[in-house]
Amino acid sequence: MATAIEIFKHLPKKNCGKCNFPTCLAFAMQLANQKVKLSDCPFVSEEAKAKLEASSAPPIRLVTVGDGPRKVELGDETELYRHEKKFFHPTRYAIVISDEAGEEEAEAKLRRVHELSFERVGQTLALDMVAVRDDSGDDARFVAMISRAAKAGLPMVLMSERPEALRKAVKEAGLKRPLLYAATEANIDAMAAVAKELKCPLAVRSGDLNALADLAERAVKAGVEDLVLDLAPPRAKDLVERNTIVRKNAVKKTFRGLGYPIILNACGDERAVLKAMLSTMKYGGIVLLDDLDPAHALPLFVLRQNIYTDPQVPIQVKAGLYPVNDPGPDAPLLFTTNFSLTYFTVMADIDKAKVPAWLLVVDTEGLSVLTAFSAGKLSAESVVEAIEETSAREKSSKGVLVIPGMLSRMSGKLQELSGLKVVVGPRESSGIPKLLKSGQA
């Protein structure tokens, strides 16, 4: 890998700051450490791009499965630990349907694909992919099940070690960029030829990391660059060890032979959900599951959501004035912060009361109520400013402002500055419905 000085020699040396760094040398240092992309510099020449391609390429290749708005992107990560820089492409979950599945089983799984969707802090958590496994060895049955599953509109994984069956399935079903799973020592050359012809990403599988790197190299030499690695871990312990070794070698040592996303086939495993969780926490790109119960899906999706958010930037909602239950001018005014979890919890509790109200969301840079107050991001002055900016007095002419119970010490000053009657609400938002129904607000 080129050093910062070697990279700097090829940069335009304008020190324009458009790359978000004050100097080209500072940008070169970040580029050498794989912290930024060469494309962040708007003035870099084509000649420099060609010479610096290897240095600027991410240690883990970006692989796209599917096409259109629901396509899945994997890899393109540069970090081992999320506190250094957020992870960008979350683990994707796929339910596997056998081509030998009966009508009832197939219908149940496809229905599950649509039903596994939850909303949390303003984000939709859902299943990402669907896979079809070639268990029959019958081309017609394989193609028929693929065509049926494709109606779900999700990116697909086609599971067969028969290259000709995959070629026929992709062409007859009219699929765009499904993941072909999986190439092994026994079929690598034929699978790579099909993947290259169809321009599809290819999964390579081996429980030996050295052999896996060799398979990946053979696929690349055959013209297939978009690869996904199946490390075939027999136990949970092996999953953690192998995923970590692959990620560490790719990120820290820039070992291109293992610089690809990871797929886990947890089908037929009694600890499938446990392995899915471990794969999510330890760099997994795709997890294949026989099925996924909603009771297991929600915590799994929430785990993924928490890992793939930016730890340095709290999840926020837009500050402003929000109507709840169709309020009029006589409806009370409440306020909270723009931390997503706080906002959606408070909003849900107000909605539960079935009482019209106005909710003022104050910009606290995504901090919760008590944290924002302690940090000086939430004060009587900032609340009054938000009231003025949103014209909340005109929308709620009742002259009452309900504040979170944790901010009771703010009530006196806030009442003085705002001219509104301040009512101290409950410490927990679950008490809001009782307060609103009592008429005290």
Characteristic terms for this protein:
8-stranded parallel beta barrel; 39% helix; 3 domains; 18 helices; 17 strands; 441 residues; TIM Barrel; 3-methyladenine DNA Glycosylase II, Chain A, domain 3; globular; Rossmann fold; 5-stranded mixed β-sheet; alpha/beta
Compute the separation of the termini in Å: 65 Å
Q: Name the CATH superfamily assignment of the largest domain.
A: Dihydropteroate synthase-like
Count of helical regions = 18
Annotated CATH architecture of the largest domain: Alpha-Beta Barrel
Using the coordinates above, name the CATH class of the largest domain. Alpha Beta
Number of domains: 3
Please indicate the percent range of residues in DSSP E strands (runs of 2 or more). Answer: 15-25%
Helix content: 25-40%
Tally the beta strands. 17
Spatially, the strands of the biggest sheet line up as: 3-6-7-8-9-10-11-12
Radius of gyration computed on alpha carbons: 27 Å
| pLDDT < 50 stretches | none
The CATH topology of the largest domain: TIM Barrel
| Estimated structural class | alpha/beta
Kindly state the mean pLDDT as a whole number? Answer: 93
Overall, the morphology is: globular
Question: What's the main sheet like?
Answer: 8 strands, parallel, barrel
